[in-house]
Write a structure and sequence with these properties.
This protein is mostly helical. It contains five helices and two strands, in the order ααααββα. A hairpin with an 8-residue loop joins strand 1 and strand 2. Helix 1 runs antiparallel to helix 4 and helix 1 crosses helix 5. The mean pLDDT is 91.
Length: 116
């Protein structure tokens, strides 16, 4: 498995449980117990998911006495956004051509129906 930051981020985002954890952390800091509540998996399994997210730089864990809050880190998500943006223009161009072709087909079909 590649260990570059973008690959680690995509690998971490590939799991729906980890995406749900990130969605919860987007609302604010939370403890492991709080993050584990909605899932029907062990606390140990949640901790393993958190380690993957932490290794990818998507979360950090603080220390406040005995409370170890997890918090979302946005930098890796910003890198994903930059990577996706490189291709956005290409996709938009393809969709624009598809829209134009569909309009042409619709216009052609409507023209044929009006002559019947």
């Amino acid at each position: 498995m590649a260990h570059d930051p973008l690959s680690l981020t995509f690998a971490a985002l590939a799991d729906p449980t980890r995406r749900a954890i990130l969605a919860r952390l987007a609302e604010g800091e939370a403890t492991v117990n709080t993050l584990a509540e909605p899932f029907d998996i062990s606390l140990q399994a949640v901790s393993r998911h958190l380690k993957v997210l932490e290794r990818a730089g998507l979360i950090t864990r603080g220390r406040d006495a005995q409370w170890r809050p997890c918090r979302l880190e946005s930098a890796p998500l910003e890198q994903v956004n930059e990577w996706v943006d490189r291709y956005r223009g290409h996709w938009e161009g393809r969709f624009a051509r598809l829209d134009e072709e569909l309009r042409r087909m619709r216009s052609s079909t409507e023209g044929e129906q009006s002559h019947e």
